Amino acid sequence: MDLDVEGIIHCIRQGDESGVESYLQEFNKEYAQCFFFDAEERDRRKQRELEEFRKNKVRYYTDSDSDCEYTEEDRGLILRQNLAIVLVRFIRQGVKCRLMKVCLRSLRILSRDKKVLAPLVTDNALLTLAKLAGLTSCDVADDDSDLDSEIFDDIIASLAKAKALHNHEEDKGDMDADDEEEECHALDEDAESYISYENTGDMDGNCGYGGHTTGINEMHRGEDHHKVLQQGRKDRRESKYEVEEEEEKESGEEGQRKEALKVLCNVVYNSTWAQERFSALRLLCGLTELLSRSASCSSPPSGQFYELRLMFLMTALRTELRVQLHQEGGVPLLTAALESSLEVQWKDQYEAVINSAAPPISLEASQRIIEILKILFNITHSTHRQEPSESDAALYRHLVAVLRVCLIRCCLLTGDTDELQGHTVNLLTALPLQCLDVLLSAPLTENCEQCQGVNMDCVHILLMFMERRLESGDKVKEKLTPILNLLTESCRAHRETRQYIRKYILPPLRDVSQRPEEGCSVKNRLIRLMTHLDTDLKYCAADLIFVLCKENVRRFVKYTGYGNAAGLLATRGLLGGQPSKASSSGTQYSSDSDSDTDEYRQIKGRINPVTGRVEEEQPDPMEGMTEEEKEEEAQKLIRLFSKLSREDIIQPMGVSAEGKLVPMAGLRDMSLTEERESESDIEPDEELD
User: Fold this and answer.
1) Beta-strand (E) ranges in 204-349?
2) 106: which residues sit within 8 A by CB, 6+ positions away?
3) 185 vs 71, more confident
C-alpha cells in the first residue's frame, strides 16, 4: 500500500473529514501490527547476505540495499514524516471525536519510528496530546504557522520531488537490467572482491541518522525488503484479550483519551527530548490527579493501564520525577490503586481477608497491578537501607500487607502469577527490612505452614518461587538475585524464617556419596551457583547458605565443600577457619548446635573436606620410601615451586592471621647460590619446559 499523503492534504483543505478518515483507516488497518526497520537492522541484514554470498560463491550478487531500495525506503520515510506533520496540525484544529481517535491511532503507529518524531516532541504537540489524554486542561498556545496553508504546499512539493526521484531510479534500474547480460561475464572470478569493495567504506553514510535502538515494540524483519513496515508481534496485553477489537467498539472521549496516552507512551520512550519536556511541563501532576480520581472509583477506567504505563516510563527514565512523585504522596496513592485493583478487604490493621474461594485476578487487573508494582519500586528502591520515620514505617507496613495479598492470590494465567510474584519480590527488596515482619504476622490457620508458632505461608510461597526460578535457568542473574537477597535478609532478621528455610534447603546430612553440587535439589542448585561466572550471583547464593549456617565456617564447609566455599570465605577473610565476626547487619545468632545424624557420624572421618563427599581410598604414593627419600622428594617439590614462582608462572599464596590470602614470600628468599645448587641436582627429565 502506498500512502497517499497528498490525498489526505487535499481532503483537509476541502474540509472532507470523511475522506481523511477513509485514508487513515486504510493506513491503520494495513499497519496496525507492523513495525519499522532501523539502520542497525539493515546493516545486519547486509552483513548476513554478504556472508551468504561468500559462502555459496554465487556468480552474481544483487545488493538488497541498492540505490533503488534506499530510494524506496527514503521515500517511505518522507511519506511518514510528512503524514506526522499533517496530522499534528490537523488534530490541533479540533475534529470530531471519532475522526480524532482515527488520527491518534495513525500517530501511534508513526510514533514507533524515531525518525518521524520531530513533529511530536514540540511543546505544542506534547500539550495537545496531554490535553486529549486528560493530563491537562490548559489551552495550547496558537501557532500562526500551523494555520499557514503554505506548509501543505511545501509538503506536496517535497512529495512530488521524491516521486520524481523514485521514478528516475526505477527507469535506471530497468536500463541496468537490460545491460545485465553484457556485464555478467565480468563478475566471474572477481565477483567476491567486487562485492567486498562495494560493501566497505561509507556506503550507508546517507542513512546515519537512522541508527537507534528499538522502540517500545520490537522491530521485526520480513522477507519483502521494499516494505518499510513489517509484521510484528502484538503487545503482550493485547494478545490476551484482543484489545484492538474492543477499542473498535469503544467510542467517545474514553477511547480518544486511551489513544492519546498510547501515543505519549511511545513518544516519551523513544525521545530523550520528550522526556525532558514532559518533566519541564509538569505533566506528571496531571497523571497523579487522574490516578487519584480513578483510585476512588469502584471500577477503574479502561485507560488506567496506559496512565500507569506512562507513569512507569517517566519514573524509570527521569530521576527527578521519582523524587517528585515520592514527595507528593506517590506511595499512599499507588498503594490505594493497588488495593482497588486487588479488591482488598481488611480484617485488621495489617491483615487482609484472604478468601481461598475467590476467583483469580483478571487479565486486565493483573496488568494494572504489575505496572503499579514497577512504579512503586522506582520511587522506593532507595529506602531499603534507610531508617523510616514512624509515619513512613506505618505506611510501608500497610503496603507490605497489600503485597502479602499479591503473593498469595493467583492470576488467571500461570505466567501472570509468576510475573506478579516476581515484581512483588522486587518491591519487597526495596522496602525497609524492619517493615517486612508484616508477612509473618498473620494468625495461624488449620492448613498453614508454620514454624515455632509463626505463620510461614508467605515464606513458603517465596521458597516455591525461588525454586521455579532455579529450575527455569533463564536469565538467572536478573531473576534470582532479588529473591536470594530477600531470603538472605529475612533469615538474618527473623530467627523463625531462618529455621524454616534451613529445614527446606539444608536438611540434616545423611548421604554424602555425591558432591554437594551434584543433584537436582534446591541445595544442589544453589551450591552450583556458588561457582557461577557472574560474581554477584555466586555471592548471593553463597551468602544465603552461609546465613542458613549461622555464618559458621565449619558448618558452611560441611554442607558445601571447601572448594565451593572458598570464594566467599576468601572475600570475608575466613579462609583460616576462624569464627565469623559480627555480620554487616549486626545479626546475633542463637547458640544452638548443629547436631549430626548417625549416618553422618559413621562416615565423617572419610569425607574429603574439599569436595564434601566420601572419596575412594587412594594408594599412598610414599609407601615404601625411607625418611631420607621422602625429605629429598619434598626438597625437589620446593625447588620446582620456587622456579615457577621466580618466573612468574605461579604465585604461591598463604593465609594470613586475618584469614585472607597473601603471597608467600619465603620461596622468593632462597639465595641465588642455593637455587643454582638445587637446579644442578635436578635430573634432566625433571626440568620444566
Assistant:
1) 229-231, 346-348
2) 24, 27, 28, 83, 87
3) 71
In the DSSP assignment, the letter for residue 160 is H
β-strand pairing of 661-663 with 653-655: antiparallel
Contact (CB, 8 A) for 275 and 120 = no
DSSP 3-state of 77: helix
Q: Each residue of 515-548: b (16+ CB within 10 Å) or e? A: bbbeeeebbbbbbbbbebeeeebbbbbbbbbbbb
Measuring CA to CA, which residue among 552, 476, 562 is closest to residue 516?
562
- Alpha-carbon separation of residue 367 from 261, 423, 538 (angstroms): 16, 11, 32
Long-range contacts of 269-276 (CB under 8 A, 24+ apart): 269/215, 269/216, 269/313, 269/317, 270/111, 270/112, 270/114, 270/117, 270/212, 270/215, 270/216, 271/114, 271/117, 271/120, 271/121, 273/121, 274/117, 274/120, 274/121, 274/126, 275/314, 275/317, 275/318, 276/318
Cα–Cα distance measured from residue 581 to residue 497, given in angstroms and rounded to the nearest whole number: 22
pLDDT band at 593 (very low <50, low <70, confident <90, very high): low
Q: Where are the beta strands (DSSP E) in 337-467?
A: 346-348, 351-352, 450-451, 454-455
What is d(CA 449, CA 238) in angstroms, rounded to the nearest whole number? 38
How many residues belong to the chain? Answer: 689
DSSP 352: E
CA angle 534, 537, 541 (to 5 degrees): 135
3-state secondary structure of 299: coil
| 3 state SS of 509 | coil
DSSP state of 437: G
Non-local (6+) Cβ contacts of 281 within 8 A are 123, 126, 127, 130
Per-residue pLDDT tens over the stretch 298-327: 677 778 999 999 999 999 999 999 999 999
Domain boundaries, the chain: 5-199, 282-442, 459-585, 627-686
Separation CA 604–CA 613 (nearest Å): 9
Question: How high is the mean pLDDT of the chain?
Answer: 78
Radius of gyration, alpha carbons of the chain: 34
Instruction: Report the relative pairing of strands 613-614 and 607-608 from DSSP bridges.
Output: antiparallel
- Residue 216 in contact with residue 312, Cβ under 8 Å? no
274, 268 Cβ separation under 8 angstroms: yes
| C-alpha cell, 9 | 492534504
Nearest-angstrom CA–CA distance, 684 and 399: 75
**Is 468:524 a contact under the CB 8 Å cutoff?**
no
Instruction: Give the DSSP H or E segment for 71.
Output: helix 67-92
What pLDDT is attached to residue 170? 56
Phi/psi of residue 182, each to 5°? -70, -35
Phi first, then psi: what are they for 60, rounded to 5°?
-135, 140
Q: If you ran DSSP here, which 8-state letter would residue 579 be given?
A: P
pLDDT of 622 strictly over 60: yes
Integer Cα distance of 595 and 612 in angstroms? 17
CA 508 – CA 595 distance, rounded (Å): 8
Measure the CA–CA gap between 136 and 520, rounded to whole angstroms: 56
- pLDDT for residue 81 is more than 70: yes
Q: To 10 degrees, what angle do helices 304-317 and 272-280 make?
A: 100
What single-letter DSSP state applies at residue 684? G
